[in-house]
Amino acid sequence: MFLKKRTVNHTLYWSIAENQREGKKIKQKTIRNLGNTEKAWEIIKSEYPQFIHKIKPYVVSKKKLRIAVLFDGAGLARLGLEQAGHECVGFELDPLKHMLSKHVGSGNCVLADATKVDLSEFDAVWASPPCQVHSMARTQGAPKSPFSQDYLDWSLSIDKPILWVENVVRPGQKPWGKLYNAAQFLPEPIQNRNRMIGGRYKKPKVFRRYKRSFPGICPAITATEYKGCSSDKRRASRFYGRKLTIEEAAFHQGFEIPKAWYEVPEGFTKAQWYRNIYEAIGNGVPVYMAKAFGEAYSF
What we know:
By secondary structure, this protein is of the alpha/beta class.
């Protein structure tokens, strides 16, 4: 007799099974379905104590979570999860984005390769792997950045009971998660931003059903808003008929520009540094969106 788990619609379900011989073959037979992790935990504690050590790592205690935020970027997802009451550590390999992240929220971020992080001390993982390979906003050639490798499959394979994997939506792509629009996460929506969230997690609170586009709302803030103009057809600039300021781009992503971001580092022109800021904002997760996912585990 042994314990089995399977994932259905981002939720873990458990069962008791055993191996049975049928002729020359050994087949697994389910003896009892235990339900989701919360229900299974109660049953196992009282009736199958020999399996407690198997399910315990997947049981979320009623306390704030310690979350590893992989591919932290400028720290926007981390900020949202911190606003939900959790303790977070961000990991980002791009030194320019890491410079920005240090001034966002707690500033608890590390310059490191996210794929090399020891996740054993964390209760949950948020991963926003580079999206340039999948993004519809990229219209010419392959991504050139050394930080644009495709780690989507790697992120989805992370073995944690709570896992959020966020990335862009591309038409024709095989679904690997659930579709959300940033416009679902505020009472008064301010941005149409479609993202797929895979992994294993509780459903967040939303204010409206999913639609790809809600009328009268600004389209997604992109990483190239610095190129915006009145005739733009691809960026959020088309909604306003002009280029957005970094403050306006930040507003649509749910935060205010930290004062330290205005300080241009040595070796950069103001235009070069502001381009870095635009890219960081456009590649980030709306703070209010990440906060909603974190609040599903807030007590």
